[in-house]
Amino acid sequence: MATVITHRGVRIVTLEPDETLKQCCSADDIALCRCNSGWLVYFVGEDGAEGYDEPFPAYQEALWAAKAAAEFAAE
Q: Is residue 20 within 8 Å of residue 2, measured between CB atoms?
């Protein structure tokens, strides 16, 4: 089951390996997804999702990036 935290009014959703963005996320969410080389960060919008080109090596780094993006979005 996906884990959801809210930071500055933005949902940050950490997906389990068997979950998809479409199943667990809504527009304006930030998603963290595990991959072979670390953690990917996706910004979910009405028309799909976009993310950073490279994964973060550790979950805490991906979470920090997501929280920073949420700070920016809250302004």
A: no
Q: What is the dihedral of CA 50, 8, 55, 57, to 10 degrees?
A: -170
Write out pLDDT tens, residues 1-51: 999 999 999 999 999 999 999 999 999 999 999 999 999 999 999 999 999
Strands (E), the chain: 3-7, 10-14, 30-35, 38-45, 48-51
Q: How many CB atoms lie within 10 A of CB 58?
A: 11
Domain assignment of residue 9, given as a range: 3-74
Total domains present in the chain: 1
Positive or negative torsion for Cα 75, 53, 55, 43: positive
Size of the chain in residues: 75
Distance CA 61, CA 34 (A): 12
The pTM for the full model equals 0.93
